Amino acid sequence: MENLENQNLSNIIDQAKHGDQEAFSYLYTNYFTPVYRYLYLRTGSKADSEDMVQDVFIKAYVSFERYSYQGTSPLAYFYTIARNTLIDHRRKKKAPVLDEDQLMEIADPANNPEENLLKEHAAEDLHKKLNLLPEDQQEVIILKFINELSTKEIADALEKSEESVRQLQSRGLKALRNIFNSHE
To answer: What is the mean pLDDT of residues 138-166?
Structure first.
């Protein structure tokens, strides 16, 4: 895996598309956390998120030969699979929305208890307010500001136009601003 780190993403993707397990393992290692975080924030269940992220990468591995590299991160491809996996999961099991108590179970490398407590309260407050938005606005805001995807990557993942994503983001941020202002 060490020599893969020196290659560019295009070569790694090409190798993975041709069945190179080490190359796909490199992609798995680098994109597992953002996909897991996305699923966890959507489900609130650590166990379900772990199961689903494994399903996402199995589905990606099986279908990766059809992936078309466009010069951007393959994260949008993984998010598309994650989103569809989440939809299937919700159809099978009426999964509850994120429980605020579980939000902070996501590993945090900071060891400062005071800082962790402040982060926990801020995250709980944000989550409560974020849940007041329509689901499509929540999804765009999570992908943009928590998972740091570009507008194009979000559009690809959600199968929407970039303009639609910008509008959802703008409306969501405006609504969040109003929610925060009304709860001060």
So the answer is: 86
